Input
Amino acid sequence: MSDLTRQSLQTIEQLQNEKLRAMLDLCARGHPYYSQRWRESNIDARDIRTLADLERLPLTHKSELMTAPERFRLSLPELPLPERALWEIIYTTGSTADPTPIYNTTHDYNAYLFQSRRVAEISNIRETDVIANLFPLTPAPMGAFVRSASNAYAAGAAIFAALPGASYGPFDVRRSVDDAVRMVAIHRATVLWGVPSFVRRLLLRAIELGADFNSVRMCAITGEASSPAMREDLRRCLRELGAAGTTVFDRYGSTELGAFAQCREDGDWHNPTPELQYHEIVDPETGHRLPDGERGALAVTHLDRRGTVLIRFVVGDVVSIDRRPCPVCGRTSERIVGPVVRTKDLVKVKGMLINPAVLLDILQSIPGIDEFQVVVRRENKADPLSRDELVVRVAGANQPEIVDMVVGRARDAIRVRPLVEFVAAKDIYDACRQTKAARFVDQRD
Ligand SMILES: [Zn+2]
Output
């Protein structure tokens, strides 16, 4: 099959129209949630013929999926076995509630391998690569851990898992940061695949130990937001280790969304498989589609799934879309343009709506800070009506210059004056116990 990401936009959209009709037909016949919802709203899915018509369907919000994930699975006993057989369940990260299961049939698993192969092509993962899976084991199977293997299979690359993080019950199979450093060296890993805060911790430890990391050529990071300063710091570590390359690819995606790929560092994110998913930018209140280039809520529509199927699903990120060919690689499928702002991440502090990521970026860029954490709490814990306090906890040498810099830069960027507290690095991020660093903590509820 020819690569759809290099066809004309017209060819792509023609195929997407056909696949959309087929997908909606399956939903009308066997998707418990959508068939009922559309019936109640007097919507006949057969009237939705094109991507333009799609705007007439209601949006799906995360809360709807979280309330009844079982009702988002297709139930069509007449489908062939690969389209019905349950291959795997992956859970989306839930910060407060229990994580939500996403069901993948054999059909969906093969589609994911197909997508992963395209991602590998776009981001230059090769057969000769040895990937270090640095994600921790988690209480429920998470996409990043489970799918790192699928990505390696699809690219034809080799993979091993370091298993860092907290031990589980009686079966302590976890390895320390030092073990992870040793395994990267033993296996001559070329790609380090993990959450940025752990990858950074690993590289810092490798520098301390004088480990041989000269096989490493790339960090593929995902699972938490990273700033330009964080990515630059990873490159600095790779240079210091004499690594074969210093590429840092930030992988954007989620369990519901699938994976996007950058063709160059800090570039936009390509939709690797327009035959599997359609994206639009919407007003989350009205459901209206916004024009290309305008920032708004990202919504995804699955075009070829058989397990959990989502139509106009509001992902929870604010981005924009560019449908012009990529100036770097020439691919024609749409690109997601950052910065990615997670709507759930905006918080009110002292009456001001702030984006903590902006503050985290600033802290990342201040020299002399080893670890940091931003905490919002009440001035008086016992009094729910007392004023908010914004506290920046810093690990590093206790210097008045650091305090001045943190306070000054924070006030300029978010117009809230923080308090600064000095603590031990382990009090912020203990790599042996935590899967990732909690950079922002709201203690008010
Ligand atoms: Zn490109």
About this structure: The first helix runs from residue 9 to 30. The mean pLDDT is 92. The pocket of zinc ion is lined by residues 263, 270, 326, 328-329, 331 (CB under 6 Å). The chain is about 30% helix and 25% strand.
